[in-house]
Amino acid sequence: MHAFNLQPKKLSLAERLADMAVDALIDEADLSPKPALVDRRGNGAHTDLHLGLMHASALSLWPAFKEMADAALEYGEIGLPLREALGRIGREGEAAMLATTDGVNTHRGAIWALGLLVAAAALEPESSVASAVTLRAARLALLNDRYAPNPFSHGAQVAQRYGVRGAREEAQLAFPAVTGLGLPQLKRSRAAGAGEQNARLDALLAIMTTLADTCVLYRAGEPGLQAMQHGAKAVLDAGGSASLGGRRQLHALDQQLIAMNASPGGAADLLAACLFLDRIERGDGLFPGVC
Ligand SMILES: CC(C)(COP(=O)(O)OP(=O)(O)OC[C@H]1O[C@@H](n2cnc3c(N)ncnc32)[C@H](O[C@H]2O[C@H](COP(=O)(O)OP(=O)(O)OP(=O)(O)O)[C@@H](O)[C@H]2O)[C@@H]1O)[C@@H](O)C(=O)NCCC(=O)NCCS
Ligand SMILES: Nc1ncnc2[nH]cnc12
């Protein structure tokens, strides 16, 4: 008889989804070289963030993601009770994140996007194509959480000032930046023979070409947003991050965004959402009969 049980513990669906959400956040943080964002090279345009903090923040969110998946399994349908449970768990997740980071906002947008997607995936595990999962997430995001506080967030301030759609609307529209740009680019770059890291960088850049990133707008206004969108397009037009021309453009974009203090934190969150959806779409041993 063995002194230890060597059988791997069988994880519940909620635990596996929480693992995948945290993995997506850690993969996003580690991906390098991302323009003006925290990565393995350094802190990008940030003075209060670093890679260790991004990792600690991602890990602190595991209980919230698991609880969101469990809530979806318990309620079993899209409706106000589930939406409001997700809101409460999301706010508790934000509090856990801020306690871990000493008050620095590392992943607010990611809690929102991945929380909705985790719940949407748990609701119908056998229906895991990205378009189906994001549609369920959108239906959840469209419901009005009566207990949501109404703070004058950075996103709300720039939405009012520039008339743009922010994180809330991105989810309510079923994540067009992810399903229409990030995921297709990820697949195109892989199919063209790019390595996985370059394919992921290209997916991030594809998201950056059109996203109204309220993080960039708050920090660097419209000139910052234009620099982000045009610069990302220039990298992809030059052949993407796996090409020499694309690499030069990427370096120039990194320098320009750092000089403008324009960190595309919203695009980074959506890349994490893209990596999460890619994982569940590909199965990764999670769901028996995918699609
Ligand atoms: C609905 C909420 C998302 C709140 O949205 P709102 O726009 O009102 O609030 P923000 O606080 O501005 O947070 C939105 C964050 O979403 C990311 N983001 C930005 N643009 C987009 C976009 N177009 N599409 C998708 N996502 C976007 C972005 O997050 C990243 O940036 C964060 C850093 O931002 P900021 O605090 O502004 O940071 P700094 O400039 O560095 O500030 P200082 O240094 O000065 O402090 C970083 O965390 C990234 O994550 C936006 O910040 C939602 O949060 C909400 O309602 N929550 C309540 C709970 C709930 O219902 N949860 C549901 C669980 S499913
Ligand atoms: N890698 C990153 N750097 C800065 N802000 C972020 N928000 C989410 N991911 C980020």
Automatic annotation (TrEMBL):
Involved in the formation of 2-(5''-phosphoribosyl)-3'-dephosphocoenzyme-A, the prosthetic group of the acyl-carrier protein of the malonate decarboxylase. Its EC number is 2.4.2.52. InterPro entries: CitG, TriPribosyl-deP-CoA_syn. Gene3D superfamilies: Triphosphoribosyl-dephospho-CoA protein. It catalyses: 3'-dephospho-CoA + ATP = 2'-(5''-triphospho-alpha-D-ribosyl)-3'-dephospho-CoA + adenine. HAMAP family: MdcB. This is Probable 2-(5''-triphosphoribosyl)-3'-dephosphocoenzyme-A synthase. It comes from the Bacteria. The keyword ATP-binding applies. One of its GO terms (molecular function) is triphosphoribosyl-dephospho-CoA synthase activity. Keywords: ATP-binding, Glycosyltransferase, Nucleotide-binding, Transferase. The keyword Nucleotide-binding applies. Transmembrane segments: none annotated. Belongs to the CitG/MdcB family.
